[in-house]
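queue> holo job accepted (S-adenosyl-L-homocysteine)
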Amino acid sequence: MTAEDKIDTRKIELVMQLRKRGISDPRVLAALERTPRDVFVPDQFEEQAYDDHALPIECGQTISQPFVVAFMTQALGVGPRMKVLEVGTGSGYQAAVLARLCRRVYSLERYRTLLSQAEARFRALDLTNITTKTGDGTKGWPEQAPFDRIIVTAAAESVPDELIHQLKIDGWMIIPVGRSVEDQTLMRIKKTEDGLTQEPLLPVRFVPLVAGRPNEA
Ligand code: SAH
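queue> job finished
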């Protein structure tokens, strides 16, 4: 078996495992199958790219667990004509999965180093519908707002007001909320004419959402 065959087998096994754990949307499963997670993890972890756990990336951050990426993507209810904002590009893996499902992904990251690496991966995979920028995601991306969907991949103590403002009416947001790593809940927020609804979906563990100036180094 070649190294590539091995990766393919592991990827297919992972997708089967995700299906067993309740990821049922065929578009989401197909998007995961088409996105090579091995490209998004540091070289020394390539062997573990298709294990269902989070892995360290540079700048002390993490690439999320595949199940959590699949779960968040499914819960976001993305359609092909939608404009999606992601806060926390990290490795770029979640953005790459979303790019297969919507019209355009706008992704913000506070570390320039991580963003440069993610951008190189998007180019290598020919993903041309992802626009990125360094910035403080708690402020959203006002020039590109409003968004049909917003996904935040770092844990907030509370939901930033600016992100609510930048969501369209009938827009949804998925965001981990919690004061400590041990106590975070993935929330789905829906904005309607009448206000907001909030649903707790899943206990999670994310790195913190850090407000303030981005790290340009
Ligand atoms: N979606 C990523 C997961 C990255 S972990 C992936 O698929 O790999 C969360 C990321 O959020 C980290 O890279 C961190 O630097 C970034 N982050 C934290 N606070 C931020 C903020 N205020 N604005 C933008 N990015 C932020």
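queue> The mean pLDDT is 96.
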